[in-house]
Protein 1
Amino acid sequence: MKFLKAAVVAVALLFVGSFSAVLHADTPPHIVHHHPRRRQVRRRIRRQRRRINRKVRHGKMSAAEGAKLKRNDADIHAEEKDMSAQNGGTITKQDQNTLNQQLNQNNNAIVNH
């Protein structure tokens, strides 16, 4: 009897696990937007855009310079989306490092204006 119960439980767990894997395999990349590495990169982009807007508003940066830096952020965001589409909705640690290096370069340009 114990063996039968254990077998039923094992089969049920296999079924639930495989069903869950099937559901997540088809999950579009935009659904997994809450992944911690993606969230960290997007948060940095938002913060940089706010700093750019603030500098333009206070006259510390020209509108043209601000537009160029925002375009850099938009390109990084597009790259993040592409990377996540290739990885099932998440980005790898290496992808995150690459994006952060690009954000660091953009950050330096913001700080130096």
Note: The chain has a mean pLDDT of 84.
Protein 2
Amino acid sequence: MSIQLKRRLLGFCFILVLSLSVLNLPHPCSNQAVAANSAVKKKFVIGGLFAMTGSWSTLGLASAAALQLAADDLNAHFSRIGSKIEVE
């Protein structure tokens, strides 16, 4: 599998995670952020369709790991700013 294809797929996963992270999220310094923090915890589930077996399994496993790393990074960011948002 070519490196260019791997980069494109990882880039797609990164864009997907970033686009989900900016949906309906207030700026941490705004008044909306205070109201959002007092609300119930919101959970966003992200996923992807990856080949886990066969000739494409190397890319599928790497993509699934990249998606999990992105979710972990987002959760760490949200907990740092005191947000009640969780990405799964």
Note: The mean pLDDT is 76.
Protein 3
Amino acid sequence: MGYGSGALATIDPASATVEHGRVDVEDLRTALARLPDVQREAVLLVGASGFSYEEAAQIMCVAVVTVKSRVNRARVSLAAMLSVDDAEEVGPDAFTRAAMQIAA
């Protein structure tokens, strides 16, 4: 299993819909806010900002495996909070990019 490889197919930031279901923008923002700071930071660095795991590890001053673990835990938590059946479908890239585009 590759981290970030299970991203949901498409998110339309204008309507905050996900191709395989709907995600309310406020629910997404709330879920991201409820993540532990270190998980949210990892998801936002890797998913929204597009940093590699190696770059995120340098920014966060932690090991690459720690970043991968935090991103994975964030995916699992987001899946539970957003009632997504399979955490594999919660790609941090898709969720966080949608949140960042909507917030901008």
Note: The chain has one domain: 11-103.
